[in-house]
Write a structure and sequence with these properties.
Radius of gyration: 22 Å
Number of helices: 2
Distance between the termini: 61 Å
Helix content: 25-40%
Largest sheet: 2 strands, antiparallel
Strand content: 15-25%
Structural class: alpha+beta
Number of strands: 2
Mean pLDDT: 88
Amino acid sequence: MKVAREAVLSVLKADKRILDKPVPEVIVGDLKETGITLVVRAWANREVFWATKNEISEQVKNVLDGKNVVFPQNVVKVIGDQPDAEKTPVA
């Protein structure tokens, strides 16, 4: 978690569109069985807000991938969806 927080903060600090006040922060928002949710709070001027948000999101994903931070995934495995060849009657 510390590595992820520091990585996100470094992305925020590197972007000149992010305002210094209020100070950007990355806090633990939730602890769940699938993982920890980090909440990112950063401010930008209204005219660049959406572009900044979208670009920061992509940069955060890239930097976390580079730090080998694992994102939770749901994996569904279907077993026995094919008929058993030995039990299928042959005409």
